[in-house]
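tmp note - FAD-binding protein
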Amino acid sequence: MSKFKIVLPREVEGVYDCVVVGAGPAGLTATLYLARLNVKVIVVSRDIGGQMATAPIVDDYPGIPSVPGAKLAEMFEEHVRRYGVPIVVGDSVRSVVKNNDIWCIETESGRRVCSYAVILAIGTIKRKLNVPGEDRFIGRGISYCAVCDGIFFKNGIVAVVGGGDSALTSALYLSSIAKKVYLIHRRDSFRAFPYYVERIRRDPKIEPIMNSIVVEIVGEKKVSGIRIRNTVSGEERTLAVDGVFVEIGSEPPKEFLKSIGLELDDRGYVAVNPDMSTNLPGIYACGDVAGGRYKYRFEQIITAAAEGAIAADAVYKYLLKIKKP
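out:
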């Protein structure tokens, strides 16, 4: 999705003031604020935009009504690029270790970047159904991104699994492509903004199936159907579908976070202070990966961006302390 890609040597010479890991709304906002504060910053991320880029439509970002998530992500990126910040795209961070007073990150490709501070804005990982057939058919009918893969099911029959905002917006997006969309939710009511719920009810192509769970994905070379169970009656039936879009939430990358030595909350999110600092001096976390007792969980683009700005301000003040002449 990004128009740009910076290729750096395997080991970047010199030490940055800050490495921002992740280029979603939190990471890019943090980078923007740091750049404006004249902080030497670099971004390393597997993609641009994070989950924002996969949103079919963003209707609640002030001043920019009804914009595709990918477009909004592009606008974030272009704003940051104005400040000449290097952004390494297509490379994930494998480890974060401290060497004396310097933090060094190593990526999956073997690239190494060191800095005085690190902002982790790595987001979360999409949850899987963990049912028979799911792993077998990933890329052959199973998808976790309607915007990425929806076009492959033009005039087909698809199912969306989930009951939150992302599930409903995905179903609405897919209804413009597919001829039929099943929306399967385990509860008797959706947990989404009323605006989306009302649009679902008015869409003739979308059929909500409540109090139901997916128990198996079936097919031969590709998905041909799903077996669902009613959680009230216990009755099972098979729906013929060409594709299944899983939108049942996400979770933090707990093992990676533990490997750094970060304190996590009881759900596995990074425990942060009000200024986004962590138990490790020089490490900050913001956006969806951040948690702890001070965090009010409201996973929105605007709240992630706000946390990125807070983290940047905290890093700037931290650098002033440790880099005193």
